[in-house]
Design brief:
Keywords: Signal. The chain has 210 residues and is mainly beta. The chain has helices at residues 3-6, 27-31, 52-56, 62-74, and strands at residues 10-13, 20-23, 80-81, 87-91, 97-104, 111-116, 122-123, 127-129, 132-139, 148-158, 170-177, 191-198, 201-208.
C-alpha cells in the first residue's frame, strides 16, 4: 500500500472546546509531506509536533497552512560566516589573539568550525553577540612561532541531524612578532626645560621638543 495513503495524518481544530481531530489520509500528498512524521511524532499519528496545530488553523486554510509549515521544516540554506579582517598582528608573550567568528543561519542550525590554522589555537563555546551565534578563535603563539606569518582559512558546517551544509570560507594572515626585550613606554608628549638668564634671575619654562 502507498505510504501516503497508509499514513493517517491528523489535523486538529484549535477551539475553546476540547481538542477534536479528523483523520485525513490524503494530507501527505496534498501538503507535500514525506509521511506522517512530518507533523506527528511517529507513523501511527501520535501527537503533534510544535507548530502543527497553529499551521492547521492558518487563515490560508488547513492544507495551505500545513504546506507552509512542512516546507519551512524541510528547507535548508547554507550558513554564512561573516567576514573578518584580512591581516592580524600578535606579539609573543602578550595578550592572546582573539578573532570573533559570527554566523548567520536562516534555520538556526548548530555548527562546527573547520579550516586551517596555526598550531596551538583554541575555540570558545558558542555564545551570542549582537544577536548572532559567535565562536572566538583564540591563539597565543610560542617563541618558536615568532617572525613568521600564518594563513588562516575557516568555514563552518552544520551538524544538526540530516543537515551538513558548509558556509563560505574566510581568509586572513597572522603576523607573529617576537617578544619585546624591554619595557616600552608610551610617550605622548615630551618636554625639556630650557634655562634662561634674565636680570640676574634664573627662570625655567617648558616647551615641546621639536
Amino acid at each position: 500500500m502507498d505510504k501516503f495513503l497508509s499514513c493517517t495524518l491528523v489535523t486538529a481544530l484549535l477551539t475553546t472546546l476540547p481538542l477534536t481531530a479528523s483523520a485525513r489520509p490524503e494530507f501527505p500528498a496534498l501538503t507535500g509531506a514525506s509521511g506522517c512524521t512530518a507533523c506527528h511524532f511517529d507513523n501511527l499519528g501520535s501527537g503533534f509536533k510544535p507548530g502543527v496545530l497553529e499551521a492547521a488553523a492558518s487563515p490560508k486554510g488547513e492544507i495551505a497552512g500545513l504546506r507552509d509549515f512542512i516546507n519551512a521544516q524541510t528547507k535548508n540554506t547554507k550558513p554564512v560566516l561573516h567576514a573578518i579582517n584580512s591581516k592580524w598582528d600578535i606579539t609573543v608573550g602578550e595578550a592572546p589573539l582573539v578573532i570573533p567568528l559570527q554566523v548567520t543561519d536562516a534555520e538556526d542550525d548548530t555548527f562546527d568550525v573547520h579550516g586551517t590554522a596555526p598550531s596551538g589555537f583554541k575555540l570558545s563555546s558558542v555564545y551570542t553577540k549582537n544577536n548572532l551565534p559567535t565562536v572566538d578563535f583564540k591563539w597565543s603563539p610560542t617563541a618558536a612561532q615568532a617572525n613568521k606569518t600564518y594563513p588562516l582559512k575557516l568555514y563552518v558546517q552544520e551538524n544538526s541531524k540530516g543537515r551538513n551544509l558548509t558556509s563560505n570560507t574566510v581568509n586572513a594572515i597572522i603576523q607573529v612578532w617576537p617578544a619585546r626585550t624591554g619595557t616600552t613606554k608610551n610617550i605622548t608628549q615630551f618636554f625639556v626645560a630650557k634655562r634662561a638668564m634674565e636680570k640676574q634671575r634664573i627662570s625655567y619654562f617648558r616647551q615641546p621638543c621639536l
